[in-house]
Write a structure and sequence with these properties.
The protein has 283 residues and is an all-alpha fold. 80% of the residues lie in helices and 0% in strands. It is globular.
Length: 283
């Protein structure tokens, strides 16, 4: 069930560009600030209604500091994601979240001593190969994609270190940055229509839901499995970029994405085979 919540979180994030396209030419920082502030308002209201949602014994300086660090990384990733989406570069976001599992594999192995299965090693190798081919063919480093990817993978890794409960972790990730977000909103929101205000407020629940689902999933799901679930999001992004918004795709992107899809198929087939063998043994 924990893995299901993780998958659902990435499905929601995969469809988020549809909403962001309605925000038009708004500044990415204004969208980010609105998401932080209105999310904080929702979380404060929930806490006021039910104070037991936060375990006070867990609110140590270490946990709050880790939650703040996680919040910074999430906000950086989110800012890059918003910029890619509203600048008609969803393809960059797609590539970013195809790269992210490589980072999560690495962090899980190095920092948490997680075991990497053979099928995961194959997927990891193919993912690195895909990035190398992208760079070789397009003659450039995907800086925006790498920035989004590294910050989000680091966010996931730090979340594994936080021992706050689910609500407490999300609460501190947002409430700490709410004053700065409000300051930016008050100085950069003149002339907005009521519809635009409504869309900005709507970014809060749109982000809180997948963060909540991912936080629940991370409690019992190893990073190696989370890294595979992350393929869901960029696949949705790719479909939107190609078939809904008709973004151009370079030779490097096309070649890299083909290799990525092959790696996902291999990982999936290996997993299903393992499950089938276990089912036979049980019977």
């Amino acid at each position: 069930m924990s893995a299901f919540f993780g998958a659902l979180a990435f499905i929601v994030w995969g469809l988020v560009p549809i909403y962001f396209h309605q925000l038009g030419t708004m500044e990415p920082m204004l969208i980010l600030s609105s998401r932080i502030f209105w999310s904080a308002i929702i979380l404060v209201a929930l806490f006021a209604y039910k104070p037991k949602l936060i375990n006070k014994a867990q609110c140590t300086p270490k946990n709050i500091a880790l939650a703040a660090a996680a919040g910074i990384l999430m906000n950086l990733s989110w800012l890059g994601f918003v910029y890619a989406t509203i600048s008609n570069n969803i393809m960059a976001a797609s590539l970013a979240f195809y790269i992210t599992p490589v980072m999560v594999f690495f962090m899980g192995f190095i920092f948490f001593k997680e075991h990497i299965q053979k099928n995961q090693k194959i997927a990891l190798f193919l993912m690195v190969l895909a990035i190398a081919i992208y760079v070789a063919l397009d003659k450039q480093l995907p800086l925006l994609s790498l920035a989004i990817s590294v910050s989000f993978a680091s966010y996931i890794a730090i979340k594994k270190l936080v021992t706050l409960n689910t609500f407490g972790a999300i609460f501190f990730e947002h409430i700490i940055f709410a004053p700065l977000a409000l300051l930016y909103i008050t100085t950069h929101s003149s002339g907005l229509s009521s519809t635009e205000w409504g869309l900005l407020v709507g970014t809060a629940p749109l982000q809180l839901l997948p963060i909540l689902l991912l936080t629940i999933s991370l409690l019992k799901t190893p990073l190696s499995k989370i890294s595979l679930l992350q393929y869901i999001e960029p696949t949705f992004h790719l479909a939107l970029a190609l078939w809904v918004y008709h973004e151009p795709i370079s030779l490097g992107q096309k070649s890299a994405l083909i290799i990525v899809i092959i790696s996902i198929m291999i990982a999936s087939l290996k997993t299903r085979k393992k499950i089938s063998i276990e089912s036979i043994n049980k019977s």
